[in-house]
């Protein structure tokens, strides 16, 4: 069986470096190129010392896509460029596996439509860690019986988007199974702005940003005289790589957009 040809956008980033390592270590994958806006024309080994193969770097998505034959583009960049990369990849017939978080609902809808139109697989996964996916699924299951829910997500202080894509996805999954409701006292007043966090259909989401953290989330479900807390921690970025690997394999057999890894596991 021929290898899956993978390109990585954002190879110098914290997630990107792990992804480069994972792709190079996976026999059935071949890393054919990278996209880094600061290192156009260089080789990956010039910027990542551990890399031995001669892998070309392109400074923009159009040159990358037109210069190489690529099966899958793994995007681990920032919301604005990640969205553009994904769109260009779809237009070009290259399947995007997107770990970049912070896309708007409008952007997701547009990408979904584009994927349908082109009949191409797209995976947008706010969280690649299997434990986090299970936490979301358990939270959805539990919220049928304990519909009063608040989410606390905690990340490193370099994260650009808040709340996290995982927290938004968790709230959306809960929204699918519980009646819409407002939580807390109807007359509550915020003495400090933002004290009650963000509000997604009545589900309050609190974002903590601190040095030393990686990616952590608690879903708290309250009932009469009881509290169920579901908690997941990613202690390092390697925790996400088995999910990226699964997506690169799975996307080869998809012809539509899948948003969230929970839709790919039983
Ligand atoms: P990071 O360390 O800041 O890496 C982002 C990379 O994107 C950097 O190398 C950055 O380069 C590059 N970049 C910025 N603008 C670019 C452009 N115009 N063209 C090409 N590359 C550009 O961030 P990270 O922690 O790796 O996270 C990357 C993304 O993955 C974020 O959206 C994060 O929320 C998400 N994430 C997802 C998961 C998941 O499981 N799905 C897990 C963790 C993180 P410069 O340094 O030059 O700006």
Automatic annotation (TrEMBL):
<feature type="active site" description="Proton donor/acceptor">
    <location>
        <position position="155"/>
    </location>
</feature>
<feature type="binding site">
    <location>
        <position position="38"/>
    </location>
    <ligand>
        <name>NADP(+)</name>
    </ligand>
</feature>
<comment type="subunit">
    <text>Homotetramer.</text>
</comment>
<dbReference type="InterPro" id="IPR000846">
    <property type="entry name" value="DapB_N"/>
</dbReference>
<keyword id="KW-0521">NADP</keyword>
<feature type="binding site">
    <location>
        <begin position="10"/>
        <end position="15"/>
    </location>
    <ligand>
        <name>NAD(+)</name>
    </ligand>
</feature>
<feature type="active site" description="Proton donor">
    <location>
        <position position="159"/>
    </location>
</feature>
<protein>
    <recommendedName>
        <fullName>4-hydroxy-tetrahydrodipicolinate reductase</fullName>
        <ecNumber>1.17.1.8</ecNumber>
    </recommendedName>
</protein>
<dbReference type="InterPro" id="IPR022663">
    <property type="entry name" value="DapB_C"/>
</dbReference>
<keyword id="KW-0220">Diaminopimelate biosynthesis</keyword>
<dbReference type="InterPro" id="IPR036291">
    <property type="entry name" value="NAD(P)-bd_dom_sf"/>
</dbReference>
<feature type="binding site">
    <location>
        <begin position="125"/>
        <end position="128"/>
    </location>
    <ligand>
        <name>NAD(+)</name>
    </ligand>
</feature>
<feature type="domain" description="Dihydrodipicolinate reductase N-terminal">
    <location>
        <begin position="4"/>
        <end position="128"/>
    </location>
</feature>
<keyword id="KW-0520">NAD</keyword>
<dbReference type="Pfam" id="PF01113">
    <property type="entry name" value="DapB_N"/>
</dbReference>
<dbReference type="GO" id="GO:0016726">
    <property type="term" value="F:oxidoreductase activity, acting on CH or CH2 groups, NAD or NADP as acceptor"/>
</dbReference>
<dbReference type="GO" id="GO:0005829">
    <property type="term" value="C:cytosol"/>
</dbReference>
<feature type="binding site">
    <location>
        <position position="156"/>
    </location>
    <ligand>
        <name>(S)-2,3,4,5-tetrahydrodipicolinate</name>
    </ligand>
</feature>
<feature type="domain" description="Dihydrodipicolinate reductase C-terminal">
    <location>
        <begin position="131"/>
        <end position="264"/>
    </location>
</feature>
<keyword id="KW-0963">Cytoplasm</keyword>
<dbReference type="GO" id="GO:0051287">
    <property type="term" value="F:NAD binding"/>
</dbReference>
<dbReference type="GO" id="GO:0009089">
    <property type="term" value="P:lysine biosynthetic process via diaminopimelate"/>
</dbReference>
<dbReference type="GO" id="GO:0019877">
    <property type="term" value="P:diaminopimelate biosynthetic process"/>
</dbReference>
<feature type="binding site">
    <location>
        <begin position="165"/>
        <end position="166"/>
    </location>
    <ligand>
        <name>(S)-2,3,4,5-tetrahydrodipicolinate</name>
    </ligand>
</feature>
<feature type="binding site">
    <location>
        <begin position="99"/>
        <end position="101"/>
    </location>
    <ligand>
        <name>NAD(+)</name>
    </ligand>
</feature>
<dbReference type="GO" id="GO:0050661">
    <property type="term" value="F:NADP binding"/>
</dbReference>
<dbReference type="Pfam" id="PF05173">
    <property type="entry name" value="DapB_C"/>
</dbReference>
<comment type="similarity">
    <text>Belongs to the DapB family.</text>
</comment>
<dbReference type="GO" id="GO:0008839">
    <property type="term" value="F:4-hydroxy-tetrahydrodipicolinate reductase"/>
</dbReference>
<comment type="pathway">
    <text>Amino-acid biosynthesis; L-lysine biosynthesis via DAP pathway; (S)-tetrahydrodipicolinate from L-aspartate: step 4/4.</text>
</comment>
<dbReference type="InterPro" id="IPR022664">
    <property type="entry name" value="DapB_N_CS"/>
</dbReference>
<dbReference type="InterPro" id="IPR023940">
    <property type="entry name" value="DHDPR_bac"/>
</dbReference>
<keyword id="KW-0028">Amino-acid biosynthesis</keyword>
<keyword id="KW-0560">Oxidoreductase</keyword>
<keyword id="KW-0457">Lysine biosynthesis</keyword>
<comment type="function">
    <text>Catalyzes the conversion of 4-hydroxy-tetrahydrodipicolinate (HTPA) to tetrahydrodipicolinate.</text>
</comment>
């Amino acid at each position: 069986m021929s290898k899956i040809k993978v390109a990585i956008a954002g190879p110098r980033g914290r997630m990107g470096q792990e992804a480069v390592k994972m792709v190079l270590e996976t026999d059935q994958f071949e890393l054919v190129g990278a996209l880094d806006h600061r290192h156009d024309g260089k080789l990956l080994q010039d910027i990542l010392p551990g890399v031995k193969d001669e892998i070309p770097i392109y400074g923009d998505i159009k040159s990358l896509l037109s210069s190489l034959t690529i099966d899958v583009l793994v995007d681990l960049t920032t919301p604005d460029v990640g969205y553009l990369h994904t769109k260009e990849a779809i237009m070009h017939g290259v399947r995007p596996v997107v770990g970049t978080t912070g896309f708007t609902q409008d952007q997701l809808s547009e990408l979904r439509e584009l994927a349908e139109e082109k009949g191409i697989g797209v995976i947008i996964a706010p969280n690649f860690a299997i434990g986090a996916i299970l936490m979301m699924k358990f939270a959805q299951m539990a919220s049928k019986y304990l519909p009063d829910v608040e989410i606390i997500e905690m990340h490193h202080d370099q994260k650009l988007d808040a709340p996290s894509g995982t927290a938004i996805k968790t709230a959306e999954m809960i929204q699918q199974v519980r009646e819409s409701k407002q939580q807390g006292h109807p007359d509550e007043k915020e003495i400090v702005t933002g004290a009650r966090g963000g509000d997604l259909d009545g589900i309050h989401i609190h974002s903590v940003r601190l040095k030393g953290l990686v990616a952590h989330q608690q879903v708290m479900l309250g009932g009469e005289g009881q509290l169920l807390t579901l908690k997941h921690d990613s202690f390092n970025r390697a925790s996400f790589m088995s999910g990226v690997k699964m997506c690169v394999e799975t996307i080869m057999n998809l012809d539509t957009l899948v948003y969230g890894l929970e839709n790919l596991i039983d």
